Structures are given as structure tokens and as C-alpha cells.
Amino acid sequence: xxxxxxxxxxxxxxxxxxxxxxxxxxxxxxxxxxxxxxxxxxxxxxxxxxxxxxxxxxxxxxxxxxxxxxxxxxxxxxxxxxxxxxxxxxxxxxxxxxxxxxxxxxxxxxxxxxxxxxxxxxxxxxxxxxxxxxxxxxxxxxxxxxxxxxxxxxxxxxxxxxxxxxxxxxxxxxxxxxxxxxxxxxxxxxxxxxxxxxxxxxxxxxxxxxxxxxxxxxxxxxxxxxxxxxxxxxxxxxxxxxxxxxxxxxxxxxxxx
Amino acid sequence: xxxxxxxxxxxxxxxxxxxxxxxxxxxxxxxxxxxxxxxxxxxxxxxxxxxxxxxxxxxxxxxxxxxxxxxxxxxxxxxxxxxxxxxxxxxxxxxxxxxxxxxxxxxxxxxxxxxxxxxxxxxxxxxxxxxxxxxxxxxxxxxxxxxxxxxxxxxxxxxxxxxxxxxxxxxxxxxxxxxxxxxxxxxxxxxxxxxxxxxxxxxxxxxxxxxxxxxxxxxxxxxxxxxxxxxxxxxxxxxxxxxxxxxxxxxxxxxxx
Amino acid sequence: xxxxxxxxxxxxxxxxxxxxxxxxxxxxxxxxxxxxxxxxxxxxxxxxxxxxxxxxxxxxxxxxxxxxxxxxxxxxxxxxxxxxxxxxxxxxxxxxxxxxxxxxxxxxxxxxxxxxxxxxxxxxxxxxxxxxxxxxxxxxxxxxxxxxxxxxxxxxxxxxxxxxxxxxxxxxxxxxxxxxxxxxxxxxxxxxxxxxxxxxxxxxxxxxxxxxxxxxxxxxxxxxxxxxxxxxxxxxxxxxxxxxxxxxxxxxxxxxx
Amino acid sequence: xxxxxxxxxxxxxxxxxxxxxxxxxxxxxxxxxxxxxxxxxxxxxxxxxxxxxxxxxxxxxxxxxxxxxxxxxxxxxxxxxxxxxxxxxxxxxxxxxxxxxxxxxxxxxxxxxxxxxxxxxxxxxxxxxxxxxxxxxxxxxxxxxxxxxxxxxxxxxxxxxxxxxxxxxxxxxxxxxxxxxxxxxxxxxxxxxxxxxxxxxxxxxxxxxxxxxxxxxxxxxxxxxxxxxxxxxxxxxxxxxxxxxxxxxxxxxxxxx
Lengths: 257, 257, 257, 257
Description:
The structure is a homotetramer.
Chain A: H1 4-7, E1 23-30, H2 33-39, H3 48-64, E2 68-74, E3 77-82, H4 93-115, E4 127-134, H5 137-166, H6 171-178, H7 183-194, H8 203-207, E5 209-222, E6 228-239, H9 246-251
Antiparallel strand pairs in A: 1-3, 1-4, 2-3, 2-5, 5-6
């Protein structure tokens, strides 16, 4: 065929299969979202609508890609865990990365209006992504703990920062003020200066969001006597809970099985 | 810091820098676009609006990413060539791949309404992507020739196929009929049976689309006598021309310099 | 410094760190050893001296590289397992591969005369190598089982082949004769035609060789009454035992800990 | 076959093909050769016999592997350039690396006695290796220039260092003395203090060694009149010449063709 003369260029494609029997994590991150959130008037330090939109994208991901068993999101980033034995795209790294990032982006733009009906997209939101493999369940749990600890540290800091700024400090002053302070001091700052108990803030801000399939009971019909007939099925749900302590994983053993 | 206990998980990220001084090609491909084009009622064998939308995305890509020097698109795929010495994301493969695919997808969804005002997106369009490096200009040109030859072969075949189907043959019959026929025979089929000279079809169908920066002359103002004052500048333009023959590259030496 | 002008060439070196927390296996293989063994008059199907030389090299490897916890050898190949958390050469694949293959080769040539005092090396023996990572202990055990099953299959076949050849068949006839026969039939062939019970052959031929550190008791001195004072220590030893059944691993839990 | 149950472990082997149409460089380096050269009483700063042995290994390499087109050695390291289009082991990195390092090591041990007849090997000499690809001829030349500049810098420094040590300074004093001095000052030190013109030192010390195939004329027979009949052929030869200036490459265009 005429094409064969040029087909040799395919030999430059590199094989990028990920190691079998390892957990595949795709982490997606907003590109330039500091500016994007300013340009689109997001609330600071957290915009609930923006987080709900991220969560809606994550739910769509689990519905579209059955081999994603867990997702964890905070701010403008989301991590997706594929089950250890997934054969999704034969574990080809580029395919997995590009398709998940593309799908996430596509849903983000399509659902934007639903969450920001008054707020037009000024330019295309973009996400970057990376793929990392982890050889054991313990290390995947540590990965997720790492992200949630990060969520905590950043959110506590950002809460202080924006309270200071809203109370009249310049951004520079607020930053200098917080430089080097510990969690304890930040909690006290909020409580004493702003009468704010950090632990009463919405869990979605403090814990981030976990998306996974959980058993739910649906009423499928009623008997003649009017008693409900229930059936349990797996449904993609969103929680804002602690995943650092092992108790979560003990209670949800089916997730990282 | 509290985080350090878990931070070891970062050590599992692999370094994915691409070889320096090589041409980086990102090829983006519609995922499941056979179904997507049916579900959204695209014209067969080619939907002009769909191609214009793809081209609009490609133009946005060159405007957003200055290190892309050339793009070639056909059907639901687009290849983007980054200049050899680009330091875009320090040449990290995952970053380059994910950001370009994400941006392309984002523009595709945002501009959809512009090209299909009557046609609502039924679900999120998704693209996959891959990154390939080429060590020499000649091989990059061969890569592009490979895609354009593919465009020609597929388009000639699809044109025949859909003419047969529209003339009453079943899809299976049309396929069997074309099985094993050569270009010459397909041209004759079109001419004799459908009175269609293949070479008179729109170049965008036959040649695909080339997007690159070219010198254009703008009239910036008029002299007092009414004579136009022109200035030449680089503008991202879209052509449908032959890039298999070396004459194109001889005429546009600045592109793959 | 004058050098800096050219030092950019270092940037072309790729990072080749192996995934952390995985078992690293280096498998070394004789290059062209069919010819090498003929040219040096090795006994067929197995040359005991040649196997002892391979084993001596493996023992040297464990003595030189403390992070190798187990080695398994058969014929002209040897597999070396590095402990999961080894930081040997920061887990850089090329370093680990090249240094182990080089050391093995060096010992092989240096010790040759010890095992073949009458038999001069005619040309440089050469080995190739590869590095593979395994994420779990079970899979490493399966890897070793794979090699030992291979040993069994090949040795049974080779034993039959050479018995046939030594009994007067041509090499081609012997091969055709064995084509498609099962283990059962091969055992019977040996027993009925050559009065040979395969299971009485030396274990080193049938099982290959396992090299690892095991507790041994040494008499370090004698008491005044002449009673021996023993001390246990780890010593690199060579066994020819079954490693397919899990019993071996249950008994030697310290190896793949 | 019985083996299939375990054969899945092969799927963990990663594909490591090197980019096509690029120059493959294997650099081999003595492992712990500072100690090795002391333990074997090498002359300082340069041991001619040790260099000749390295060169003999390099010559054997070019004779064994026809796709090596050039080698450059200095001290205990040697770089081997494979031609751009080589299909040696289908360009599999591990195979190329392990086989070349193994062969080099094997020859080193086998030829040791030839160069050090009075000097027994005390333990196995070992080399590490790495593989790097370069996309263009210019960059390969820069790579070689990088090694030769390194040779020059190190040799000038080592020559000063050992002259100082041999003249009675302690190693620490010699090192401190040279710290931060420029090439110019080092040349003057040698000339004024030790009456040594650096440029009169043997070229093998100052320039390192280049091994490649060059046309030589052999007298193949004599005519009846006694006139020699010559034939030119390619022979692996060793030179000690400048490869930083492009003049060398202009004169030997066939090497990196």
C-alpha cells in the first residue's frame, strides 16, 4: 500500500505500559487556576459551587470508567485510583492519562452553566495530569493521606489568610503574619481574633471530597400490604470524611480490595 | 512539617522528560467518534462544520502555545508539532500531553455551539492523545506525509462507500464492493457511476488542514493621500495543501527551522 | 569552566530509577552459550563443572552485593533478587544491570581455570542481562517457580534428546522423536529404553541451584572439657531444592521478608 | 503447557527500545578503580600498561560488534558509538548495555596477564555502563569533545598533583595547592617548578585514545618483477588525536556518516 513508505514513523512511538498489578493513580490539577478563579470571581478561600462542580466531574468519571474505585478531591485537584488489575487501555499510560484528563475537562465545561448560571466562562479551563503507580495498598492509602494532610494544611492557612485580608490587612501583610506559624497558632488566631472555631467549618473545606461506590438501599416497589421492598445496589456517592486514619479503610474494605 | 510522613509517595512519580533537541509531536484523536458523529448527526463522509470546529480548536492551540509550529488535522484527529528546542514544561511528557489534550477538549466544548447552534451536545466529547519524538526534520516531514496519505486513502474510500450507501446499497454490500479495490478503480467508480470527479471535491476533505503561522500583510493605516500603509506580521492561518511533496517545505522553510 | 560548553550533552541521559518498594530481579544469560559450550567441550546435556562455575559466580555475587537476598540458576542463566527496599545505586536500572553483569562475567573468567584446569578459554565468555521489578512477594515466588518449571521441562527434554543421540540417532531424528511428547512419555522413554529413572539424576540437574544466606552453626572453639562452643551465623549456601511449592518459602521466611 | 501458569511474570518486563535513527553511545566506567589501581600498583598519574589494556579491550569491541563506529577512551572509561541506524539487539537498551559491558569486562580479565605479566589480579575488576542516545551528528561530536576536554582538565590536574606529591608534598597539601588554579597556572607550575613542558607528554595521556576503522594499505603479494601489490582495507586502529576541532571529522567523514 502507498502508505507503507511512511509508516516507519510509527516505530518511534514508545511503549508506555504501566507495571502490571500495581495501583494506578491519575492526579488532575487545574492549570493556572489561581488566575482562573480570580477571573471567574470564585469565593475565597473556598468557593462551594466550584467544589461542587469538581465533585460532579469526579462522579461522572466513576460512572464513565468502572475501573476507577476511588477519587479524592481538594481545591482544583482530583486524584483517581484505578483498581490494581485494571486492563483499561492495556494499561498504556498515555491513553489512560489523556482520556481521563480530556473527559474530566469536557464534563467541567459542559456542567459549568449548571453550577455557575450567571457566570460565563471567559476562556477554556484547562487541567494537567500525571500518572503514578503504587505497588501496595498501604502505599496507596499513604498517597491519599498525603493529599488530605495537604488539604488540611492549605485550608487552615488559606482560611487565616483570607480572614486577615478581609479584615483589612494587605495580602503581603497577611502572608508575612502567617509565615512560620504552626497549626495550633492558626487555630487560635481564628478563634480569638475572628471568633471562628475551625472545626465547625464545612467538612468539604476541611476534609476534601471522597467519591466512591457504596451500598445504598433503594425501595424498588411496595408489596400489596404497602410494605416497601428494598434492594441494595452500589451507587457513586460523595463523602467528606477522614481517610488518614485506617478506620475508614477498615470500614470500606471493598474499595481497595 | 506534619506532611513529611507521607511525602515519600512522591518518590514513585517517574521522570518522563523527552529527549532534548527532538521534534515533539502530540497527536490527538477523538475517542469513540464513530458513535459520537452518528449521535450528533454529522454529515457523511465529511461534515464540514465538524471539521471547521476541529480547525478552530487547532488555531486556538497555536495561539495558546507559541512553541507549536505546525498542526495537521484530518477527520477527528489532529497532530501538533512543537519546535525541536522547546522547553515547554521542561519537556515533561505527561504535562505536555495532558495540558494540550485538556485545552483542545475545553475549546471543542466551548466552541461547539458556534458551529452547531441547533445541535446540543448529548454527552462529553473526549479525545485521547500520544506524544512521539522525532530526531530529524526529514522524519517529521515523513510523519506528516504519513498522516496526509492516510487522509487521502481514507477519504477516497469513505467517499465511495457513502456514495454507494446513499445510492441504495447496504453498508455491508458497500464494504464488500470496495474490498481490495485500488485508488484508480475507486476514482473510476466515482466518475463513471456517480459522475463525480474526486479531484473537484473540497480540498479540506482531500488534503486535510494545515495550521501554522504565516506572514500576512495588514493595512495598518492610510497616508494622507489615501495610500495604504502595510505591515507584515505572523498570523495563524489554515490551509488545505499538499505537504507530502517537499515543495511545501521548501516554500515555508521557517516552519521546521 | 571550559567544559561547560559541551556539558549540555549530559542532559540527554535519561533517568532510569526503578519503582520504589518493588523486588528487583536481574537475570543474567550466557550469550551464544550453545556454541560456547560446544567450543569448550561441555558434557551434554549437563556439564557439572560448568554448573559449579556458575554457582561459584552466584555465591560471589551474594558476597559482593549484600542486597541480593536470593539467586536461582539453571544452565547458563542466573536470576538475582534484590530486597524490595534496596537503595543499591539509588535503584538506577543501568547501574544495577551493568555492575552485576560485569561482576558476574569478571568472576566467571577469573574462576574458569579453577573449574576447567585443562581447558583454556578460547574467547571471552559474555552474558546479557535484564532487570525486572515485581510489586509483591507472591509474584516474585511465581517468577522463581517459572524459572524452575522451565528448568524441569528443558532438562527432561534435553536428557531424552542426548540419550537418543548417544544411542545412535541423528540430532534431527532425536528432535523429531521428541516433538510433542509429554513429560509422562519422556519419563517412560528414559525408563524403558535407557533404564534410567529420571528422579535419580542429580538434583542440580533437575532442580537447578538456589543460593541464599542461611543460618549455619560454626564451632568457634572448644571448652576446657573439650566440648564444642557453637555460634550460628548467616552463610551463603547453595541448595538444589524445590522452590515451586510454598513449603520452601514457609520454611525460609527471612529470605523474602 | 505446565509453564503457562507462571508465564504471566514475563509481562512485567518493560520494553526498552531506544529511539530509532539516533546515535547510541555506551559509556563504560571502572567501578571503584581508584582503589583498584592502587591495589594493583598502577603508575600515577597514568599507567601506560593499564591504558594499553583498556585500548586492547576497545579494539576487541570494534572487532566483535561491527556497528560500533568509534570509541574514545580516557583513564578507566571508554565510550562506544553505535551507528545511527544500528539494529543491534533491535536497539533494546538492556541487551546492548549488558552485552557490551560483559564483553568488555571479559576481555579485560582475559588480557590482563598479557599487559601485567607480573601482577596477579587480586579481585574481579568491574565496570558500570550507561546508554545515551543523541539525535544528531553535531551532538555526538560535542559528546566526544566533552569527554576529551574532561581528559585534558583531569590529566593536567593529575600531572600537577602527582608531581607535587612525588616532590614531597602531602596529598592534602597538593590538593589545596591546586584548588582553584587555572590551566595556564598549572602549565606554568609544571614548567617552572618541574621543568616539564606539558605538551611533550605522551599524546595518549593528553588526548586519550580514539579507536575506529581506517583505510590501511596492505601489500598482498609481489608481482614477478618484485613490485608490491597493495590493497586497501578497513582496519581497527588506535590514534591519540584531537577530536574537539572539527578538522578531525572533516578528514574522517566516513565515521559518523
